[in-house]
Amino acid sequence: MDDAAIQVPGQQPFLSYLNLNLGLCVTYPANWLKQEGPIATGFAVVFNSPAEGPSDRFSENVNVFAEPLPPSVTLDQYYQGCAQGANQQAVKFLERGPATISGRPAYRHVYTGAAPAFLPVPAALSLQCLQYFIVSNSKGYVVTYTAESQKYNKFLPTVE
User: Fold this and answer.
1) Per-domain residue ranges for the chain?
2) Domain 4-159: assigned CATH number
3) Which of these, 110, 94, 100, lies nearest to 156 by C-alpha position?
4) Is the Cβ–Cβ distance between 49 and 61 less than 8 Å?
5) According to the model, what pLDDT value does residue 1 have?
6) Are 17 and 26 spatial neighbours (Cβ–Cβ below 8 Å)?
């Protein structure tokens, strides 16, 4: 998909990612790296922040996961299924509850925890994540912002 540039005076330029098949339109900083493709259960697009220097151990990122759902699956059912998996991880929830994203009903939670084993970063690295769960047009979406805990607030305004 082609990305279109958006420039707001006094701010860094943003690109617009559009995927009509998934009903996704996401703006992201022009200097962030975009990666997209199918995964085992659906489709994901990931936007990674640039390295802040040679000692930067983790690339803050936003990823959007989309998967097909039966038409009868509600937002509450989808969230409960996703939340069960999150409850089994060694994380500390800071926030949990209903929300809206792009005008749609959603669930949101914020949590902290160690980096999962599958990430190529030091296991002791503490991460903070913000997640939104959305159901629309028989698709489930999970939008996740992940950052080093001490950098979470630095990138949050850009992510929002």
Assistant:
1) 4-159
2) 3.40.1000.10
3) 110
4) yes
5) 46
6) yes
pLDDT in tens, 120-138: 666 678 899 999 999 999 9
Q: Alpha helices, DSSP H only, in the chain?
A: 75-87, 152-159
pLDDT, position 3: 59
Helix (H/G/I), strand (E/B), else coil: 159: helix
pLDDT of residue 136: 93
Helices then strands, counting H and E runs in the chain, come out as 2, 10
Residue 43 has pLDDT above 80, yes or no: yes
- Predicted TM-score (pTM) of the model is 0.86
Sign, CA dihedral 114-99-63-159, equals negative
Distance CA 7, CA 14 (A): 6
How far CA 142 is from CA of 54, 79, 109, in Å, comes to 31, 9, 11
Give me the torsion for CA of 121, 128, 107, 35, rounded to 10°: -40
Percent of residues, the chain, with pLDDT higher than 70: 84
